[in-house]
Amino acid sequence: MGKETILKTLRHEKTDEVAWVPFTGVHAAFMKGYTATEILTDGDKLFDALMNVHKLYTPDGMPIVFDLQIEAEILGCKLMWSDENPPSVVKHPLRKTKEIPCKCQIPKKTDGRIPMIMEVCERVKKAVGDDTALYGLLCGPVTLASHLRGTDFFMDIISDPTYTEELVAFCAEVNIALAKYYVEAGMDVIAVVDPIISQISPSAIEAHFLSSFQAIFDEIRNMGVLSCLFVCGDATNQMDVMARSRADGISIDENVNIVEAKKITDQYNVTICGNIPLTTVMLFGNQLDNMKYVVDMLDGIDHHNLVISPGCDMPFKIPVDNTIACVQAIKHTDESREMVKNHETAGSLMDIELPDYQALTKPFVELFTLDADTCAACTYMVNAVKDVKEIMGNDFDMAEYKYNIKEDIARTQKMGVQHLPSIYINGEVRWSSIIPPREELIAAIKELM
Amino acid sequence: MSKITELAVVVEEGRIDDVVAAVEAALEEGNAPMDILNAGLIDPINVLGEKFRLGEVYVPELLISSKAMKMGVDRIKPLLAAGDVKVLGKAVFCTVEGDMHDIGKNLVVLLLESAGFEVIDLGMDVEPDDIVEAIQENDDVQILGMSAMLTTTMYAMKETIEALEEAGLRDRVKVLIGGAPVNQIFADQIGADGYTTNAPSAVELCKKLVVA
């Protein structure tokens, strides 16, 4: 894992490989069987979920929390919580009054969920901070202003721009305060996440809000860490003004053509981050779709000043193996390109004979992997079975099939394996993309003895 | 410049403090209320809708101009003769269960109303059963529009379509969906009749759906 790769990329230095940052917000909860609310409010569960992300997705950089309502909650917004999403703002304190909140309301580090996030950040820093860059995410000043004011904020931009400038400037001070706390806790990169700026004209951003963004990113630079500006939606027309925000990197989602956007960010020597499609590819695609998408993306774009990441906060239920395929494609692009090619031709390669599972004399554990030498999740899964093999000896047979060997691809396809890595016992799928605890694995094998 | 043209400029520029006075000036000039409605209030919104589609204006401009238009319509409405305003169709709109993101839905509702549709706005976080009930209670509704911002709530659209089928109402309404995570593929998968990427094109689609 390459924290240094992230830092170098955001410093616009040459790197040997492309950096990878999975935006595992509430998806980290899904991976461990928690709800979104649990990891956003319980530090132990959040830490547990983040360690699992680190293990399975081998990130160069990872966010501690992806929740744009942390500041809003402290500033008096009422939230509606959800099992599979970050909370939503349902009541806006400035809906009926055009006030600028008092500076005394700027969050202190003891307010709201800030202490929990700082504590988890410190724990993650100790555990994996040497090899992984930690991202502290802030709700950007424009989105935070809209949380406080509600939909009228959009109309204020036209009817009372001075008010919106002042409100956004206040929110920028909130950003700077939180950035200080997060840097103190060990964050390496501060990301200002401002999804709604894609809905505002570049000229309005320039006239009313650009100076606030520049103030935030100047302050973050003074704190000695790196920065990113995240946007969601079709921000094609906003790329130029965003590139002048003085952020070290800009993160975009699939609504923006990354090749074209990079031409703009390159003019300003800003790093671009993105933009694996969240729904069509990561959520609804299969493993090969994800691998192919990332390989094609890497083949079509200059790797300097580039971070590969999902388009935005990953949906809760993205199949874990889809992300694993993305990791494989980023970290082992040549092998993945071969896998994609072989997958397309393997069906006609040979007629693989499957074991007669009904006639087995002892349990047969089969591991279908991408390649345990290069895919961390596969390595953990293979080692889990090998550990049990050492304990149980000849009580069961085992075999590993790798997706970079043509015969094994044909076998994987014939078995109808949907997700890699997977463990099958006696021809039946038992675990997909989940590393089973030793006791569970032993019990499953013993059941069939 | 005629007072109607001046009104159209006021609406297009979203000058909500000036719109009522501009309507009154157009009336004083002797213009027919119906002409003021069409040329002074609705036409500029159509122009703005096209500019939105081309990326020349954004959500703030569209929202405030729609608000200006609505204020103008409220002023002119009592002066219109019964039957003057042709209702193009009737629609029910909402964000689906669990989804509290309504900016897009609100925009579509505003533009639809300005285009001549009658819209029952059920608001945010509306359960499938409540949507079905609204359609049952209004037997002249032709369109159901649902919006979702989240990948988790978008499935409530499918549940709602299934609930419509169970209630025997599916053939009575055309279902239109929109929102960040959905696309045409998803619309096809769940059996929706239409999908669009933005508010002005949603209005165009509604116009097509009611004559289809």
Describe the 3D structure.
Chain B: This is Methionine synthase. Chain B: Belongs to the methylamine corrinoid protein family. The complex is a heterodimer of chains A (449) and B (212). With 449 residues, chain A is an alpha/beta fold. Chain A has two domains: 3-331, TIM Barrel, CATH 3.20.20.210; 357-447, Glutaredoxin. Chain A contains 19 helices and 14 strands. The two termini of chain A are 40 Å apart. In chain A, α6 (114-128) crosses α9 (161-185), α9 runs parallel beside α10 (202-222) and α15 (320-331) crosses α16. Chain B is built from nine helices and five strands. In chain B, α5 (103-114) crosses α9 (199-211) and α6 crosses α7. The termini of chain B are far apart. In chain B, 48% of the residues are buried. The mean pLDDT of chain B is 91. Classes of the chains: A alpha/beta (449), B alpha/beta (212). The A-B interface holds A 80, 82, 84-85, 88-90, 151, 154-155, 157-159, 199-201, 204, 232-233, 236-237, 278-280, 283-284, 315-317 and B 14, 16-17, 55, 57-61, 63-64, 67, 98-103, 106, 125, 150-153, 180-181, 183, 185-186.
The gist of it:
The complex is a heterodimer of chains A (449) and B (212). By secondary structure, chain A is of the alpha/beta class.
Reported for the largest beta sheet of chain A, the result is: 8 strands, parallel
Rg of chain B computed from alpha carbons, rounded to a whole number of angstroms: 18 Å
The name of the CATH topology of the largest domain in chain B is Rossmann fold
Helix content of chain A: 40-55%
Strand line-up in the sheet with most strands of chain A: 1-10-9-8-7-6-5-2
Indicate the low-confidence ranges of chain B by residue numbers: none
Structural class of chain A: alpha/beta
Q: How much of the polypeptide of chain B forms β-strand, as a percent range?
A: 5-15%
Distance, first to last CA of chain B: 40 Å
Q: How many distinct folded domains of chain A?
A: 2
The CATH class of the largest domain in chain B is Alpha Beta
What pattern of helices and strands is seen along the backbone of chain B? HHHHEHEHEHEHEH
Shape of chain B: elongated
- Spell out the CATH superfamily of the largest domain in chain B: Cobalamin-binding domain
Tell how many strands the DSSP assignment of chain A holds: 14
Low-confidence region ranges of chain A: none
Overall mean pLDDT of chain B stands at 91
Biggest β-sheet: strands ordered side by side in the sheet of chain B? 2-1-3-4-5
- Give the helix tally of chain A: 19
Keywords (chain B): Cobalt, Metal-binding, Methyltransferase, Transferase
GO biological process, one term (chain B): homocysteine metabolic process
Domain B12-binding (chain B): 88-212
Organism (chain B): Acetobacterium wieringae
